[in-house]
Amino acid sequence: MKNFVFQNPTKLLFGRGAIERMRAEIPADKKLMVTFGGGSVRANGVYERVTRALEGLDYVEFWGIEPNPKVETVREAVAMCRREGVEFLLAVGGGSVLDATKLIAAAVHAGADAWELVRNPALLPEAILPFADVMTLPATGSEMNNGAVISNAATREKFAFYSRFPLFSVLDPEVTYSLPEYQIACGLADTFVHTVEQYLTVAGESPLMDRWAEGLLSTLVEVAPGAMAAEPDYDSRATYMLCATMALNGFIAMGVSQDWATHRIGHEITALHGVTHAQTLAVVLPAVMAELQEQKQDKLLQYAARVWGLCEGSRQERIDAAIARTGEFFRSLGLKTRLSELGIGRPTAEEIVRRFAERGTRLGEKANVDAAAVGRILERCL
Ligand code: NZQ
Ligand code: ZN
Q1: Ligand 1: does its nearest atom lie under 6 Å from the Cβ of 223?
Q2: How many A from CA of 278 to the centre of ligand 2?
Q3: Is any ligand 1 atom within 6 A of the Cβ of residue 37?
Q4: Looking at ligand 1, which residue's alpha carbon is closest to its atom 49?
Q5: pLDDT tens-place string over residues 9-67
Q6: pLDDT for position 223
Q7: Which distant-in-sequence residues (6+ apart) come within 8 Å of 3 by Cβ?
Q8: Which parts of the chain have pLDDT scores under 50?
Q9: What is the dihedral of CA 358, 259, 290, 309, to 10 degrees?
């Protein structure tokens, strides 16, 4: 096991009626800004519930944070915060609204532009506004981590940055009832891939982390049909929601190697084509597994046995079957597993390879996935 430091300060308010219980957590003497996406919260009653919970408090609203939030939108919100003297932010929406809010919180008192903060963490100011959220889409884990992923429309780039954790997160599984089936599929796939990227690396580093990760993966496979059912089932939604949080809040990352190659390649596909985040992961993950099967073989065999019950056959047969089962799981959710199915071809793969070569990025748990390896991975995705 590697050395590690672990601290996660976010308070979770989980369950039915959690929105109604959040009032006690909000500093009553501070000027608030409530941030929203494109309007799903108006249709599903969340806006009304939040407004009631905030009655009597001094707040302004900022609307229009888009999926794959743009720095251009963040800049508008930062200007409004400065104009209004905002001291506390409440994000109400999916990962995109919360991620944008994390950058707004960091940029209000910064001496640098918001995009510079994303690209250069040394520029993050000490004075970052406190923020919290009502999470309406279980997927990103953003509700209990300090990461955010921001897009730049002008340069067609998408990068992660790391700042502060939410003060508290409100997780009411009932707010997921209005999610379209596609977003639930994406939420399940995103959670699955977050877990895999902290698990499918080096065997034997931590039996405890392995069992926790395998617990999440098996639970996701088990709960997926219930979570996707047209008639919402509270317990399935609650399990799915908690899985999403637990997959990316640091609890399964203690002392183990990580490999974020799938995410890094997926972000480029989204940056160039606007493809939904988890849809890119469903395409890229099986190809990463196949390309890196030699260095990951012990862990792939463990994954095959413990998550998919694949214990028969040669090592190669079990590895092949585990990779196939991964792709089948994504397809069972209704997601695509090929770039060609998304109308994306070789020119995009070449542009992504060019970007990685220019940046000199090396991915994977062994930092051996260079631009050429990214090219081979993308070739497998076509
Ligand atoms: O904008 P509104 O109208 O609210 O609609 C949203 C949006 O269109 C809708 N939605 C959200 N909750 C709903 C709902 N519709 C009906 N009922 C509800 N309860 O869903 C659409 C997608 O929302 P979005 O916030 O974009 O999805 P998600 O939560 O998957 O976030 C994706 C973003 O998070 C980043 C991704 O890269 C992407 O930019 N990620 C953030 C991470 C983090 N902070 O740690 C890690 C992840 O790996 C990921 O990269
Ligand atoms: Zn993700």
Answers
A1: no
A2: 6
A3: yes
A4: 140
A5: 999 999 999 999 999 999 999 999 999 999 999 999 999 999 999 999 999 999 999 99
A6: 98
A7: 255
A8: none
A9: -170
Full-prediction pTM beyond 0.90? yes
- Give the model's pLDDT for residue 185: 98
Which of 3.30.420.40, 3.30.70.260, 3.40.50.300, 3.40.50.1970 would CATH assign to domain 11-175? 3.40.50.1970
Query: What distances in angstroms separate CA 114 from CA 85, 106, 142, 304, one per listed residue?
Result: 18, 8, 19, 43
The angle formed by the CA atoms of residues 147, 75 and 92, to the nearest 5 degrees, is 55
Atom of ligand 1 nearest to the CA of 141: 45
Among the bound ligands, name the one nearest to the CA of residue 268. Answer: 1
Q: How far is CA 8 from CA 122, 329, 330, 336, 376, in A?
A: 21, 31, 30, 34, 37
CB of residue 166 inside a 6 A radius of ligand 1: no
pLDDT digits (tens, 9 = 90+) for 231-242: 999 999 999 999
* Backbone torsions φ then ψ of 298, nearest 5 degrees: -65, -40
Contacts of 65 (CB under 8 A, 6+ apart): 35, 36, 37, 38, 73, 77, 93, 96, 97, 100, 101
CA of 137 to the centre of ligand 1 (A): 6
Sign of CA dihedral 44, 50, 56, 57: negative
- Chain-centre distance for alpha carbon 206: 24
* CATH of 180-381 given 3.40.50.720, 3.40.50.300, 3.40.640.10, 1.20.1090.10: 1.20.1090.10
Structure confidence at residue 252 (pLDDT):
98
Residues 168, 98 contacting (CB under 8 angstroms): no
CA dist 189 and 241 (Å) reads 13
How far away, in angstroms, is 205 Cα from ligand 1 center?
32
Host H or E run for residue 46: helix 46-53
Which segments of the chain belong to CATH 3.40.50.1970?
11-175
For CATH 1.20.1090.10, list the domain ranges present in the chain.
180-381
Q: How far is the CA of 140 from the centre of ligand 1 (A)?
A: 7
Over 90-117, what HEC string results?
EEEECHHHHHHHHHHHHHCCCCCCHHHH
